[in-house]
Amino acid sequence: MASVNLREEAALMLTRSSIVAELDIHDARIIVDAMRPMAVKAGTVIMTEGQTDDVDYMALVLEGQVRAEGSGVGDGDEVVISVIDAGQLFGEMGLIDGSPRSATCTALTDLKLAVLTRRALRGLVEVQPAVAARLMLSISRALAERLRESNRRLRTLSQISRAMQAELGAVHAVNKRLLAAQARKAG
Length: 187
Prior knowledge:
alpha+beta; 4-stranded antiparallel beta sheet; 5 helices; elongated; RmlC-like_jellyroll; Env_Response_Regulators; Cyclic nucleotide-binding protein
């Protein structure tokens, strides 16, 4: 990263990021030094859900906002997953596994990003293994928290679905009785 002030600001943001908040300022500076700056214009799609190329990086938002959205269930509509603000990371799963992107991320405003590629992470592993390990543990912890939250939401949706199915079953039974009564009256 070019400017000393921008480097320090990025390092401070990294220590405050909900994903890697356990990093101290020294670790954050080392990680920021491995990142490259990127400017993105508002409206630009940064990554697309299902994208299989250029998936091996994550980015720290230094300035601006990013909208993350995923495809809806069968209706083709996009569902906003989150709005990512300055100081937050996105794309961590791609950094770790290189699998297709799980969401579409679009710049809501002009952005300044700091990007960490898997190649740069591998360099950190070789040169600063303890820092790289702390970064990966922090990312893993954040992903585990997201998975737990997704599981909680899935359980809630499952309970709602069962309740709706029971309600529909009751409505269906009432409709059958009404139709049977109407048929008896007509016949």
